[in-house]
Write a structure and sequence with these properties.
Distance between the termini: 27 Å
Order of helices and strands: EHE
Structural class: little secondary structure
Shape: globular
Radius of gyration: 14 Å
Largest sheet: 2 strands, antiparallel
Strand order of the largest sheet: 1-2
Strand content: 5-15%
Number of strands: 2
Length: about 110
């Protein structure tokens, strides 16, 4: 998820979007977002919501193991072109899998 927000603090980093692309944060159906295995102190809000995701001190973290399942429903049809994932290489994801239109996922 990219952002055009300007940094609010010295720890913030803004990402410039290419021409013709838009931040999809306004298209997210926030009350239906789910994250399985998230740490209660480091929730999906830190990674997705404008104002939080720009703060390098906030992050999304699993409370159990290295796996997270993040369900992000949109309130309209969107064309997802790219994702921006920030974090230290030694702590960031090694594997990322995207699934479209699969609302009832779980760990098996």
């Amino acid at each position: 998820m990219a952002t055009t927000a300007t940094p609010a603090a010295t720890t913030a980093t803004a990402v410039q979007l290419p021409l013709g692309q838009a931040d999809l944060a306004d298209c997210i159906e926030w009350q239906s977002v789910e994250c399985l295995n998230e740490n209660g102190n480091h929730t999906f809000v830190n990674a997705l919501k404008q104002g939080y995701r720009e703060d390098n001190g906030l992050h999304l973290e699993s409370d159990a193991d290295e796996q997270l399942l993040l369900f992000i429903p949109f309130n309209q049809v969107v064309k997802l072109h790219s994702l921006i994932i920030r974090g230290p290489p030694e702590e960031g994801p090694r594997t990322l899998k995207l699934f479209a239109n699969r609302p009832n996922m779980g760990f098996r």
